[in-house]
Amino acid sequence: MSGNAIEIEGLRKTYAGQKGTGPKDALKGIDLAIPEGSVFGLLGPNGAGKSTLINILAGLVVKSSGRVRIWGFDQDVNPRQSRAAIGVMPQELNLDPFFTPRAALEVQAGLYGVPKSQRRSDEILELVGLSDKANAYARTLSGGMRRRLLLAKALVHSPQILVLDEPTAGVDIELRQMLWSNVRKLNEQGMTIILTTHYLEEAEEMCDEIAIINHGEKVAQDSTANLLGRIDAKTMVIHPASEADTLPSGKGMEVDRRPDGAIAITYRAAETSAEDVLAAVHDAGISIRDVKTEEADLQDVFLELTRAG
Ligand code: ADP
Ligand code: MG
Description:
With 309 residues, the chain is α/β, with parallel strands linked by helices. The chain has ten helices and 14 strands.
């Protein structure tokens, strides 16, 4: 293998037009390589094409063209092997209401051809915190428990790659913590994790590498650290010793007075130095009681990259 868990080349998806609408180009030629062993974030606004991409990986949506390789297996050449390498926790809560969690896992294991002797239903139910609901009807489960069950189902065939589509959208804090601690645990055991989220702090915290897609196109892919480094805007926040009458000014500086009386000076580190900023503050006759700097976060990068259109 190439060191990549997933390799996608020129992936396109056009949905046939529904009533009153024309065909929809949901993916417009995506190239994407996802490193083995990573926690990989797929970010993008609503409608960007994230679920379409993930559902193609899962074999739930048929691509229009392009190449998809999962764990080294071409989806068109080795559909069974490529499907066996991946487990997907979908965005939709689509569960059969008449199966208990244990039965749902057994059925899923059967679908993937996991022999009875190798099934781990109890262990997986324990992992997701559903042991005490193992024999309850799915329709009596809360939304959070259903999500736990969807995660459990994605794990029955011990896939090398786990994909989670918006796993924490609208879930409570406890479930979110359970999900992230499981993701970390599984990743430490060697599983490659791919997740979509629109919570940027979450991607920042969880992901080693991130791809941003917008309108069916990839607009960026990099390590989380490099993506954050792309925006070199820094903000220096000055708390003056007494109320400042004059605001500092200088080339390449954007100056704001904050409600708490602090003065925020935003500048590009490549063009303006911190010393220039401090000199401008001094020239304005301001004595400094306290100073701190703020860095750009993923939100800034994301807005910059998805602003066009
Ligand atoms: P995301 O998960 O990033 O929100 P989706 O992949 O769900 O985006 O959707 C991408 C685009 O494709 C959207 O414009 C959406 O309306 C459209 N789309 C998704 N599923 C279908 C479908 N089954 N039929 C027609 N259009 C679809
Ligand atoms: Mg989606």
